[in-house]
């Protein structure tokens, strides 16, 4: 099985990504690293542990990471994920507050150094933890197998979810993303261009009726689905983070190409924008493998199949 570390800011779609990663039975999850993002870090720790306990996998360690971005003030998305980050689900689950005595960036360095060329980092939150790890140990970029990132917006200008040109994970810590993109790490970017085509609809949720996770998925995604219906007329939850896990499980779900990509960190109008130089106007070496298309129907089928099991 492929060795992975799952870096999360749990949130609703992060929770679904954890479900998919573990229920796929294809990944050796070395640990989960938590980062400030969708909700504050304490919420992320608690939510991640709740999901693991609900699954019966609470032996997997959750490592506390960065509690704030590298430079900017924290930005959270309670309107999407609810007051607790899980849309009010799993309220009755109590979790052990004990934590491993290692900082998440140090855990990333430790594991990638221990298994050089074998570890995939699945990054579905702001990239603060990885940026800190790379600053401490630049050789990490040569040791890691691949870094699969949920974030950014490449071709769908004006379709961002924080600013017209910016996606949340990039906007939450653009300086961290810039460090990662320029580190020499093998980065694959799963952006809104493809994730916004993968909706878990109300009808899909009902297909899970009678299965272990039906109640959790129905309850947790309700606020997210309602917001999507209000904004774009679809009662559904875009599977941003689960698709990122899906791309690791089955790379043929997407078509990709490698280009030079940079991140805007100075403009008030476009902070966090991921800019792809399709025509090589900057004459720079390609540094990011971007996703061009997604077989969204096959991915939704994969997600439902794994979660049903």
Automatic annotation (TrEMBL):
Gene3D superfamilies: Ribonucleoside hydrolase-like. Pfam families: IU_nuc_hydro. Keywords: Glycosidase, Hydrolase. It comes from the Bacteria. The keyword Transferase does not apply. GO terms for molecular function: hydrolase activity. Residues 4-300 form the Inosine/uridine-preferring nucleoside hydrolase domain. Transmembrane segments: none annotated. InterPro entries: Inosine/uridine_hydrolase_dom, IUNH, Ribo_hydro-like. Signal peptide: none annotated. This is Nucleoside hydrolase. It comes from Virgibacillus byunsanensis.
């Amino acid at each position: 099985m492929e060795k992975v570390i799952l870096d999360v800011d749990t949130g609703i779609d992060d929770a679904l990504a954890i479900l998919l990663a573990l229920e796929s039975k294809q990944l050796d999850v070395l640990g989960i690293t938590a980062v400030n993002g969708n909700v504050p870090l304490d919420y992320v720790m608690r939510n991640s542990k709740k999901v693991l306990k609900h699954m019966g996998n609470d032996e997997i360690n959750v490592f506390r990471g960065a509690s704030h971005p590298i430079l900017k003030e924290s930005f959270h998305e309670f309107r999407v994920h609810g007051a607790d980050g899980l849309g009010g689900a799993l309220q009755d689950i109590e979790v052990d507050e004990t934590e491993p005595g290692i900082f998440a960036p140090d855990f990333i360095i430790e594991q990638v150094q221990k298994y050089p060329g074998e570890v995939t980092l699945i990054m579905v939150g702001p990239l603060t933890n990885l940026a800190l790890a790379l600053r401490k140990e630049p050789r990490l970029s040569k040791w890691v197998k691949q870094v699969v990132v949920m974030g950014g917006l490449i071709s769908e200008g004006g379709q961002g979810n924080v600013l017209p040109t910016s996606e949340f994970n990039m906007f939450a810590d653009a300086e961290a993303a810039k460090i990662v993109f320029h580190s020499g790490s093998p980065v694959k970017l799963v952006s809104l261009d493809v994730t916004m085509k993968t909706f878990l609809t109300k009808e899909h949720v009902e297909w899970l009726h009678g299965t272990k996770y039906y109640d959790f998925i129905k309850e947790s995604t309700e606020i997210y689905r309602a917001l999507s219906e209000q904004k774009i007329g679809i009662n559904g939850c875009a599977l941003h983070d689960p698709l990122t896990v899906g791309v690791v499980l089955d790379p043929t779900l997407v078509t990709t190409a490698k280009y030079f990509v940079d991140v805007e960190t100075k403009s008030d109008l476009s902070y966090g924008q991921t800019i792809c130089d399709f025509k090589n106007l900057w004459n720079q070496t390609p540094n990011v493998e971007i996703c061009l298309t997604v077989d969204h129907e096959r991915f939704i089928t994969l997600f439902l199949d794994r979660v049903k099991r």
